[in-house]
Amino acid sequence: MRMPFVFLAAAVVMFASRDVGRAAPPGGPYKVVKTARVGGEGNFDYVYADSDGRRLYIPRADRVTVFDLDSLKPLGEIPGARGARGAAVDPASHHGFCSSSPVVMWDTRTLETIKTIDVEGGPDGIMFDPATGRVFVFSHRPPNATVIDAKDGSVVGTMDLGGAPEQAASDGNGRLYVAIEDKDKVAVVDAKALKVTAHYDLAGKGGGPAGLALDRKNHVLFATCRNPQNMVVLSADDGHVIASLPIGSGSDGALFNPATMEAFSSQRDGTLTVVKEKSPTEFEVEQTVQTKAGAKTCTLDRKTNQVYLITAERGPAATPAAAGNQRQPGTPGGRGGGGRGGPIVPGSFSILVVGK
Question: pTM score > 0.90 for this model?
Answer without folding.
Answer: no
